[in-house]
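Field notebook, page 146. I keep forgetting to write these up properly, so this time I am using the form the group agreed on. The chain and the ligand, heme C, are recorded exactly as supplied. Prediction of the bound pose follows.
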Amino acid sequence: MRMRKVLLSFVLLAAAAACDTGPKSGYGLRLPEGEPDRGRQVFIDKHCTSCHEVIGQEPLREGVDPEMTVYIGGLTTKIDTYGQLVTSVVNPSHKIAKTYRRDEFSSNGESAMRSYNDEMTVTELIDLVAFLQEQYEEFPDDSYYY
Ligand code: HEC
């Protein structure tokens, strides 16, 4: 009986691991090293500040007339992997945290955050992610191991 339980947990573990690393998973996604300072500038230039307050970087919002306030950084976040961070920028509606399923932030599962995919270069994205990554405390620096 005990053996069966042990076996079953192995099977379940293997299944879970397969989901994380399957052909359609984000496993192995790794952007090149970015430049956080340039990313900060992208954040300003693309007006991310009209909806976001970056914890500890309040001056970024000076002179901005805010549309809404979604906090980025600190420990308050729902983001805990590198993959989730990249996803939150290029595919914001993929998964909307419970806190933001209210009308001001999303409607019918669509995030109020618009897509920047047609107006941002890959280099800008890389730098932006480097900047954002620095804002999160205890953020895993490199969640992907080959
Ligand atoms: C019109 C408002 C709006 C703009 C402009 C906007 N966002 Fe967002 N953003 C949101 C909302 C709403 C959420 C929360 C819902 C979701 O997950 O999409 C969010 C979530 C995020 C998150 C996840 C935050 C967390 O810790 O949970 C990141 C990172 C982010 N945005 C980055 C950006 C960047 C970078 C830009 C500029 C290129 C940007 N956003 C522009 C509305 C906006």
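OBSERVATIONS:
- Strands lie at 52-54, 70-72, 106-107, 110-111.
- The pocket of heme C is lined by residues 43, 46-48, 50-52, 67-68, 70, 72, 77-79, 85, 88-89, 92, 96-97, 100, 105-106, 111-114, 116, 128, 132 (CB under 6 Å).
FOLLOW-UP: compare against the apo run.
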